[in-house]
Each structure stands twice: as structure tokens, then as C-alpha cells.
Amino acid sequence: MVKLNKVLKGSVAFLSASLLLAACGNNANSKPAEKTADGKTKISFLSTWQINDVRPPKDETLVGQWLEEQLGIDIDLVTIPGEGVSSKVNSLITSNQLPTVLLTTGDKSDIAGINKLGKQGAFLDLSQHMDKLPNYKKYLEKNNALAQIEDDEKHIYAFTKFFTDENIMYTTPILRKDLLVGSEFEDLSKIKTVDDYTKVLKYLTEKQGSPAFIQRNGYEGFMKRVTPLWNLSHRTYYDYESDSYKHPVEQPQLKQFVEWLKELRKDNVLHPDWAVMKDETWEGLLASNKGSFTVDRMNIIGDNNFDKSFDWQPLVYPEINGKRYLQPKTPYISDSGWVINANAPKEEIDKALEFFNFLYADENQEKLAIGFEGKTFTRENPNTQAGIKWLIQIYGENAGNDKAELLFKHGNQAFTRVQTKLDIEAQPGTFPKVMYDQVDKIKKDLGGFRPDTPVLSFTTEELDVLTKSEAGLNTFFDENIIKFIEGQRDMSEWDSFINEAKSKDLDKVTKVYNDAYKRVKDRMK
């Protein structure tokens, strides 16, 4: 049984504005930068990625060491699990030790929140430093991203995360086809409807003797990856069909989605830890033949992480009530980014600007994304489009490899979780040919991918409304959705739940989102 407090504990606040600005009040730009014994400028980084394990320090990664050598800096990196973000960041603020760079990828580090704190003096206004960021400027222009990240006064405070390449399908439903050989489900093209999905999942569960459906990264990760199958989310989201923002409680398919998960959970098809499962547990189950369906990364196939007999294959989105929703290029909204502390010493700020400009340089993409040939990868893998084969995986044929000390130890994912175009444009070599075939199928036969989710920027007044109303609405929603799926609340109470949710300032919340979206559309005309 899922414990609600454990599930919701990961939904942390990014930063307390009052604490942050108090710490920033005593401007430190005039202070000298800290130097190492060999004269390198020390740059402090805090990575607040929502992860459940602590990644290795940069000194243990080839890319981390390479960045230091190329830029003449000493990177003081701290990576912390998602559940510790709020307390760690706030402790640094109150002790006046806010780092030079915050790799802000937590739930509340969206562009709107960053812009608000930037306007108040917390983060560096990048629009005043574009002469030092030619690669980033080029990236913004190439991806038509400027209108989505600047505030209403055309200030820029964030380095954006990736904008998805239309030829890459990073996250999709995948299953073990080898377990279906000889069954009525062997031909995956016949798995069309949500009822077909249910039958296949029950078959796989019975065959393996353990729940077939597993997901990682807890409740947040589960909902981000699975809800798009039903054109839903667990937050106010962009509904591409109506070209507007809606909360899931406004959508009629939400009830059917919850009933589907409730049935799978009751029949032990959905893993009992679905809302709390950590990344490493998920990978361990997949590797140990105890999970056969997940909605996740396509490079599970290309990486050859697991036993060679595991034939992972993609599925198309299911038809629901005779309709198949368009598949996202990725279910993640690119609405967060990284920031530079506006009150750091000037020399550290200059070095941080140089660092980010380096990250966005086209010629650096391969090393940042996949490391070094012969050390972290080899170009000898016929199953991938670019012939790249990892040498650093901890499962499957590389389990005994002394280079495989820790998953992702090669560089960027361990170092900063850097995900600009770095992963999306340079990592395709890890994806299998079957993924590109699936992309072609979606484009040609299934109506293509859904439109990209807009990136919004809110006014101070709108943020105040969201601060007062949205957290309560979302907490109420999460708690009750989990209760329904776990059988702790009866479905006969569904209408009452919907009415309760709508009474929690839902109209105010969705109006803020749609007003902000209208401004984005007006700016892009």
C-alpha cells in the first residue's frame, strides 16, 4: 500500500524568494573569486535534479575533468537527491553560500519562477551579456526559443533545457516482445486499443509471475510518462486538441484513466511501488527479468543494457474509445533551466558565462553527450543508427567491465545532468534503428506527433495567484488520485472529488495559464 506522505514528499519548493533575496542583498560582485593552488578560478555548482541517488563528483567523470581542463576552472559540484533540494538550497542561502551556478531542474524551477526572482535581483540578466554568449544566442534563434523564455520586458535569466528533436522519440511505451512469442499478442501491430494493452499486461504478469507494469521516479515520474497516453497530466497542462490549458479534472477521460490503473493495481499488474519506485529499483527489476512493460526511454533497446534475449520493442499509443491521442516527442515540458547567481564575484560570473557558452557550442556536443570514444563508447554496434555502443553500462554484457563502475559515470549525466540539445542532438547514436522506424510510422500513419508545449512566463500578480491557489489544488488532486488507484477511496465518490477539486480555485488557476499563453501567442505573431 502506498504511503501518501512518502509520495508527496518529493514535490519540493525550489527556492524561498524572501530567503534568497535576503542572502543576495549584500552584493558580492566586488569580492575576489576563490582560486585553487594552481591558479584556477573555483566555480561552485549545485545540481538539484529530481533524482533518488547521488551522482559521482566531477573528479570521477571524464567529461567533468575535460571541462575543467578546457575552461581553466575548478568545479565544486554538489549533487543531491530530489527530496533534499529544498532544505539544501535554503541552508546555503541562509549561510550566505549560494553557489555561482544553480542547475535548477526541480519542480518549481520553471521559467516563470526564474524570471520573477531574476527581476528581483537574484539571477543574472543574460540579455545584458549576450556578447559573451554567442553560442547560446545562436541556439535560441535556431530553436525559436526566445519568445518563450524572456519575460514581458525582454529580460532573459535562464539557460534553457533541450528542445526536442522531431526525429527522436525519447519516451514511449515499450515491452518485451520475446515474452510474447507463441501467444496471440506476438504480432505487436495487433495491440491497438487500451483493452489490448490490458490483456497483454495481464498475460505478461501471469507469465513472469511478477507485475509487468513498472515505472521509475515515483509518482511524479509515473504521471509525467503515463498520462500523455490519455492526453492528460497531473498538473494544469497544454491540451493540444483545444489549444488551451486545462486541469486534468476538467477532462472526461481522467475517470477512465484512473479506473484503468485501479484495475491493473487490483490485479497486481501494476507494481505495488508504482508511486514510490526509485530509478535504481526500476533498472534492477528490468535487468532481473521482473518487469516487461514500461513507458520510458527508447535507448533501453539501443544501450544493450540487459540480457541479449530481451527483445524490447515500442508500442504505438492505444486507441481509447475509438480514438488515439497524438504522441508527444517527449512528455517533458522544457520549462526550466539553469541560472547564474547575480551576486557572485565578477570573475566567477565571467567564468560561468564562458562555461555555458562552451556547453552550447556545436563542436562540443558529442563529448558532452556520450563522452570519449574508446573509453565510454565504441562505434561498433549495428543495432544503433550511428553505430555507438556504450562501454559504461552496469548491466548485461558490460556488467563485468571495469569501466562500468556506475551508470552514467562517463560525464554529463553524472556531472550536471546537462540536457540542452546536448542529449537530443548528440545522443541519437545510442538509439536503435527500430526507434527511427517507429518515428516514421507515427509521422506517416498515425497523424504525426502532437505540437510542442508552449513555455509560459507569468506576471508577478499571476504568480501570486498560483502561489495561493495552485499548490492546494495539486496536493488535493495527487492525494485523491492515489487513493482511488489504491482502492482507498471508492469510485462512487468520483463526482464529489471532481466538484471538490473545482472548488479549489481551479478557474483562477487555469485562467492564469491561458492568459499567459495568449501573451506568448501574441509575441510570436
Automatic annotation (TrEMBL):
Keywords tagged on the record: Cell membrane, Lipoprotein, Membrane, Palmitate, Signal
Region forming the signal peptide: 1-22
Pfam families assigned to the protein according to its UniProt record, in alphabetical order: SBP_bac_8
Record bears the keyword Lipoprotein: yes
Statement: the UniProt record of this protein carries the keyword Oxidoreductase: no
InterPro entries attached to this UniProt entry: Bact_solute-bd_prot1 (IPR050490), SBP (IPR006059)
Transmembrane segments: none
Protein name, as recorded: ABC transporter substrate-binding protein
